[in-house]
Amino acid sequence: MTKLIRITNRDNVAVALHPVEAGETISLDGLSVTAIEAIPQGHKIALSPIEEGGAVIKYGYPIGHATAPIQAGAWVHTHNAKTNLSGEEEYSYQPAVPTVEPVAPETFQGFRRKDGRAAVRNEIWIIPTVGCVNDVATKLARDNQDLVSGSIEGLYAFPHPYGCSQTGADHAQTRKLLAALAHHPNAGAVLVLSLGCENLQPDQFLAELGDFDPDRIKFLICQDVEDEFAAGRALLEECAAFAGQFHREPIPVSELVIGMKCGGSDGLSGVTANPTVGVFSDMMIARGGSTVLTEVPEMFGAEGMLLNRCVSKEVFDKATHMLNGFKDYFISHHETVYENPSPGNKKGGITTLEDKSCGCVQKGGTAPISDVIGYGDRVTTHGLNMLYGPGNDLVSATAMTAAGAHIVLFTTGRGTPFGAPAPTVKISSNSQLAGKKSGWIDFDAGPIADGEPIAQTAQRLFDRVIEIASGSPSKAEEMGFRGIAIFKDGVTL
Fold this sequence. Notes:
This protein is an alpha/beta fold. It has three domains: 4-82, Archaeosine Trna-guanine Transglycosylase, Chain: A, domain 4 (Roll); 123-245, Ribose 5-phosphate Isomerase B, Chain: A (3-Layer(aba) Sandwich), CATH 3.40.1400; 253-479. It contains twelve helices and 23 strands. It has helices at residues 134-143, 168-182, 202-209, 228-243, 273-286, 313-332, 343-347, 353-360, 393-402, 431-436, 454-469, 475-479, and strands at 4-5, 13-16, 25-28, 31-34, 44-46, 55-58, 61-66, 75-76, 81-82, 107-112, 118-119, 123-128, 154-157, 187-194, 217-221, 249-252, 257-262, 290-293, 369-373, 383-387, 407-412, 424-428, 443-444. The strands form six sheets. A seven-stranded parallel β-sheet has the order 19-20-18-17-21-22-23, with helices on both faces. Strands 1-2-5-8 form a four-stranded antiparallel β-sheet, with no helix packed on it. Strands 13-12-14-15 form a four-stranded parallel β-sheet, sandwiched between helices. The protein is globular and about 75 Å long. 53% of the residues are buried.
């Protein structure tokens, strides 16, 4: 059994693929290291002495510095290592844009919308414009499940607490995010539900929505009708009649947009699950498809893995503006840029934000970065897209759905049950989690720790994504777990 992995030959630490006992001697890459203390799975062991202030190197990059002298064989973690990060940085563009060898795309069984877009689900969505009508939306979805028949695969409401008592950027973000969700191709039809007196007025929403098919998107203002449930039922029947026209047919995978997210990460996430998603992303892009990478705070410290892959100086400038803009967001709220990782991350072996970030961006693979898009914007460029959004699981998964992601791949070392509006596929970094939480986990990348080649794991994942795109439900879908969360920054009136 291989117990340690040295990710690059520049690293002065290795990661424990399995627990290492104190006194155990392990040979690795021509080195021999004896553990002077127990090293938990996912945690780091020093391969050579590191002086106080010296760089701790993992993934070939500094992930922090030693706060005390570290002996070879010692456990390297929060008790003896610390971040190097501070505030904004100056970045220079030194392009190293990789080439991608094209591959003929396979097909999945999806839905072709009237505007030509592809979809992987044919559902009816109820989108409240304000939190005041959340319960109405939820009851409408619950009471009208008989409309789910034929090719219609679900009827769902997406409650949220916003749409009123918001000003400025917050109000604009809510409006933009909800309009983007209404345009999502997985929704065969949409009922937009308003109260009538909220800040987010129907005319504002229509202006944000832009061009739309009135047969596909219906509107109900609850204060304007005597019985909102009867009126809602009538409109949902119209939605069902429209959505029921669509049926699955072969569509090239080049038309898929796949979101990539991690949460509840552990020390193996950047070794097993995230690199698997990275190879998957490269496979998608080689076939002409699109992937979306977000969680901007979890790019801090890993910029060297990303920025020079931007296809142009214009895209590079958008990326650096996004990165420093998010750092300024922290600083403007009097928060430290490096206030991360979470307690669960640390328990799983992640020591600093750089450690977390370098593992996180493995999901971006090696392909060129084709575009950088804002919160609530939709993907318009094929290839790897960077999306402005926080690390929060629900907020970022919602933003990826709004960007047009048909499916969200979610890697995790600790596990989580949530689901975004798009099918959310949970990928475990370790097989223990996959066994313990089989009701949560869709795919196990843990066999990599036991020697399975990443390319083989990625091919298994690619095949599974095609199955899910063709109608196989994710575990979160089976449980009916779906929700949205909207990014908020300003005051509440």
